[in-house]
Amino acid sequence: MFDKSDSQYIAKAKKSMASTETKAQLTFIKAYMDSTPQLISKLEYSEKELIQVVDEMKKFEDRATSWPGSIGTSVRNKLEYVLGRNPAWKTIIDISRSLKGEIPETPLSYTANELSNFKYLPLVSVDVERSFSRMK
Does 23 lie in the same domain as 2? Predict the structure, then answer.
């Protein structure tokens, strides 16, 4: 793949790619996280209704419960931690419930007219990839 005379960084990359641990981690990512780029694209798309976007996130959270092994547990815990630290996430879920005509878990202080204006509320306000980079 690379010439042996290449730089030390290519040698390190080759060694890393040959490691059993790296192969196992890449296999996990391919098997269980393959839909993540599509989810990010859906979150970035501004013309999607809030209900649809929240449902996509809920499906992702549901899939996370079946991620096996220590990597699955670690990624699932990180997802729960990030969403749990976002005080607006529960409010967004409740707004989505209201838009579906369901009763929210927590009473919302918005009028029906105000709630209807959240129909196309974007879930991301900055570039998603930069946000994920900052969370590392």
Answer: yes
